[in-house]
UniProtKB/TrEMBL annotation:
Gene3D superfamilies: Glycosidases. It comes from Streptococcus hyointestinalis. Its EC number is 2.4.1.25. Keywords: Carbohydrate metabolism, Glycosyltransferase, Transferase. This is 4-alpha-glucanotransferase. SUPFAM superfamilies: (Trans)glycosidases. GO terms for biological process: carbohydrate metabolic process.
Amino acid sequence: MAKRASGVLMHITSLPNQFGVGTFGKSAYDFVDFLEETDQTYWQILPLTTTSYGDSPYQSFSAIAGNTHFIDFDLLAAAGYLREADYATVDFGNDPEQVDYERIYTARRPILEKAVTTFLQEKSNKERLAQFEKKASWLTDYAEFMALKEHFGNKALTEWDDVKAIKRDPATLATYRKELEDKILFHKVVQYFFDQQWYQLKKYANTKGIEIIGDMPIYVSADSVEVWTMPELFKLDENRRPTAIAGVPADEFSDDGQLWGNPIYNWSEHQKTNYAWWVERIKAGVTMYDVLRIDHFKGFSDYWEIRGDYETANDGSWQPGPGRALFDAVKKELGELPIIAENLGYIDEKAEQLLADTAFPGMKILEFGFFDTDGSSEDLPHFYTENSVAYAGTHDNEVINGWFDSLTKEQQAYAENYMRRLPDEPIVETALRTLYSSVSSIAITCMQDLLDKPASSRMNTPNTLGGNWQWRMLAEDLTQERKDFLKEITTVYYRGRK
């Protein structure tokens, strides 16, 4: 990673276009050009994996398979797999600043099916798909899982109508493979489309000097191909139901804590294999991205395990995680890796020690620094260290305008004084100027903050279902004035690409 640099956090879904959700198409390439123009080094995104019922990229059907919403139709048309008429008049939603996930899920599928049909008509394409299958060892299991899931009415794994399918009875699976052959093939081809378009975009970014910071959730979904095919790696009963789930106890977001619902890892089983699954997962992550942010890093030192008879997330206990042994195993196999540790939340001495042992940069959140007004918060820049990544806030926090409006008068006054807010200066500019001036080697701004967006543009409110992950920017929001401001603070605080 660069010695001193900066970047922008902007998920693919938030890119502007006419398809109802951001894709790997023209607006993504335009965004790379914007980052180059403003002398940024990093484009940070959220997980690119499939999303399920709550539209969260942190609850995926697979730890590796890509979200097919990001496949761009114009690029498929340019490749000869679609005609513009196949999608030009389709209604993908009527609000350009909000993703309507239900609508795009319904509208995109028949268009993708047309592209797959056209793709498979060429023998050379079938050969390309076969080569992709050899490279993507996870692909067949994923395609079969998704085909079965659709066959059972998109129910969660544990609710499938055939228990033998849940338990992967060989004879049962052989029958379904024949019956669902076309659906299985569909899911393989769309993953090929995703792979081709993503790596073309990443290559373009890299040639422009832009590196991608990707995101890896610590847990996988209970309704996932991993739980289906590798149940021994999780704490489950014989029918793949979690016997303990993940979450956190009471925190600033909820008095009852947060119920994430993900199955807890059977760490003793992982240890027996010298953490082979983690080695492969992290290897996939650092292949897909230039830098890998690992979410909820504390869960590797110790994690909150919620009992099966829980009423709230508080019905749990802290349990020891794998600690340094996991990362020593990963390092032995893969060498030194460009990893950022999301070390937010309840961070105790054990979690701090693991971060120190790995030497990964942790995260600092400027917004957290002003809840107290005595200057003691370690999220204030005077406590930052060089080996850290500084944010005003992340996708889980208020945008700067919403955060500042939520402060008390005393907190606002303290923040304005600390950050030396200039007369008539927008609070977003004050905060970003403070952020970029910090000693942290990397500073990342959320796109909503750069664009001076209101509280309603927040990406996610933890522990809530619905209304999240929807914000999209308008192309006209990114004015020359906003670009000039970003380039100015990047230059003044010596974060430009050298």
